[in-house]
């Protein structure tokens, strides 16, 4: 039986300076410069949940704030497959990968609003603002193509507002 994709939303969160929020996965604390240790906020959607509702819920859950406004929605659902060694392990073992709806957002808060420590089991343990074009080099190999697409398609937002 072929496993399904998990529906997911993702945020390319731009600072007023045109930089992008990236966070280091808490389960990879030694990945300071390594590809895969840093990623964009993203998370699963509940059955029947509107992607925009899921987006702001996930921002609040993962980075402690949803202070942002949507600039654009990527027109396509982007998918990735897990590598063979993660099938049956990652994503609860129930999915072959994820089908993602991505959004570009402008952050409307201050750096102090970003609170990775608001959850007793945070997904991330560090964060920074990075240049959009650096995204593919930060991603794990199986997500690199999606990050390349996002860097290309959301490039118009990578400038000071």
Automatic annotation (TrEMBL):
List required co-factors: a divalent metal cation; Mg(2+)
Signal peptide as annotated in the record: none
| Nudix hydrolase domain segment(s) | 4-152
Which terms in the Gene Ontology molecular function aspect does this entry carry?
A: bis(5'-adenosyl)-pentaphosphatase activity; guanosine-3',5'-bis(diphosphate) 3'-diphosphatase activity
Name of the top EC class for this enzyme: hydrolase
* Cited InterPro entries: NUDIX_hydrolase-like_dom_sf (IPR015797), NUDIX_hydrolase_CS (IPR020084), NUDIX_hydrolase_dom (IPR000086), RppH (IPR022927)
Do the record's keywords include Ubl conjugation? no
Q: What UniProt keywords are attached to this protein's entry?
A: Hydrolase
Instruction: Offer one example of a GO biological process linked to this entry.
Output: nucleoside phosphate metabolic process
Motif range for Nudix box?
Answer: 43-64
Q: Give the enzyme's EC designation.
A: 3.6.1.-
UniProt keyword Ubl conjugation present: no
Q: Which family does it belong to?
A: Belongs to the Nudix hydrolase family. RppH subfamily.
As for what it does, the entry says: Accelerates the degradation of transcripts by removing pyrophosphate from the 5'-end of triphosphorylated RNA, leading to a more labile monophosphorylated state that can stimulate subsequent ribonuclease cleavage.
Q: What is this protein called?
A: RNA pyrophosphohydrolase
What is the gene name?
rppH
């Amino acid at each position: 039986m072929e496993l399904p994709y998990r529906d997911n939303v993702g945020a390319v969160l731009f600072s007023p300076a045109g930089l992008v929020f990236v966070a280091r996965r808490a389960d990879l604390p030694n990945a300071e410069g390594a590809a895969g240790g840093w990623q964009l906020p993203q998370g699963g959607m509940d059955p029947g949940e509107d992607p925009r509702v899921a987006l702001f819920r996930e921002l609040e859950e993962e980075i402690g704030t949803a202070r942002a406004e949507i600039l654009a929605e990527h027109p396509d659902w982007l998918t990735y497959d897990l590598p063979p060694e993660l099938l049956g392990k990652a994503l609860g073992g129930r999915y072959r990968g994820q089908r993602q709806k991505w959004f570009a957002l402008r952050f409307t808060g201050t750096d102090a609003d970003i609170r990775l420590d608001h959850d007793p089991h945070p997904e991330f343990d560090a964060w920074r603002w990075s240049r959009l074009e650096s995204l593919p080099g930060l991603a794990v190999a199986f997500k690199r193509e999606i990050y390349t697409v996002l860097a290309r398609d959301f490039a118009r937002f990578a400038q000071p507002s």
